[in-house]
């Protein structure tokens, strides 16, 4: 039996479609994965067997660098956070939630601004750039330069995410017109887009791979601890070595370099206020007890 290395590109009805050397192989997962509570995900690098004229089997999952639950994808390189400026209005709080979550998963964020042509005050785009570009996050004006986004796809696995109604499906359809994703119209009564979910497939686009399903639209920090949170803000990481205390939370501690930089305007007060709110949420969170199935 041959052992071949490949990558799962699609999972559907118990079958895993694995790409290897330009071919797609239909496989199933070995039964022992269930015993080990392992679920292969789209994006996983795997070792599989493939016989002529018969189904292959996934034999081994190779180590993952990260995984997302919505959409269920592993080994993600970058996340495009689709951020609407109107209908729904810009929420720095929600944007920072996405950025913190991506940082926690070692996924590089790209901020994509949608509906910029509908904004009365064009200084808003400049304000967003001034906060996020110095942190190393590309900020792309969707109405001005869509190609700038697709230029970033090469050799990367990219997922899209963002608030409901921000235009994730519309943008995916724009970059891949053959996709024909359903776009959920914004419900006037709820002010939220309808969820249109489907199986996940990785599409080869612009020299990289793109998940064809938009990801999560809201975030509740269930996996991030209060110790980890400050490390998910790049500007806090840069300042923390100069804080008086090694594990400084940047709240009430004396000699805090982060607070000093906020006061001097070197760190965005919007970001810092969002950090304080997120920290409170995490500290008030009830512990989650998993049921013992034995």
From TrEMBL:
- Where would you say this protein principally sits, based on its record? cytoplasm
Q: Where does Zn(2+) bind?
A: 243, 248, 250, 256
Q: Which cofactor does it need?
A: Zn(2+)
Where is each EngC GTPase domain found? 74-217
Biological process (GO) annotations? ribosomal small subunit biogenesis
Origin: domain of life: Bacteria
Q: Where in the cell is it found?
A: Cytoplasm
Q: Recorded E.C. number(s)?
A: 3.6.1.-
Query: What are the UniProt keywords, alphabetically?
Result: Cytoplasm, GTP-binding, Hydrolase, Metal-binding, Nucleotide-binding, Ribosome biogenesis, RNA-binding, rRNA-binding, Zinc
The annotation note on the cofactor reads: Binds 1 zinc ion per subunit.
**Can you quote a single GO CC term?**
cytoplasm
DNA damage as a keyword of this entry, yes or no, is no
Task: Please tell me where GTP binds in this chain.
Answer: 114-117, 162-170
Record-annotated CP-type G domain positions: 65-219
Give any Pfam family that matches.
Answer: RsgA_N
Q: Which family does it belong to?
A: Belongs to the TRAFAC class YlqF/YawG GTPase family. RsgA subfamily.
The record ties this protein, via HAMAP family, to: GTPase_RsgA (MF_01820)
Describe the protein's quaternary organization and the partners it interacts with: Monomer. Associates with 30S ribosomal subunit, binds 16S rRNA.
Q: State the protein's purpose.
A: One of several proteins that assist in the late maturation steps of the functional core of the 30S ribosomal subunit. Helps release RbfA from mature subunits. May play a role in the assembly of ribosomal proteins into the subunit. Circularly permuted GTPase that catalyzes slow GTP hydrolysis, GTPase activity is stimulated by the 30S ribosomal subunit.
| Record-given protein name | Small ribosomal subunit biogenesis GTPase RsgA
Organism, by scientific name, is Enterococcus dongliensis
Identify the coding gene.
rsgA
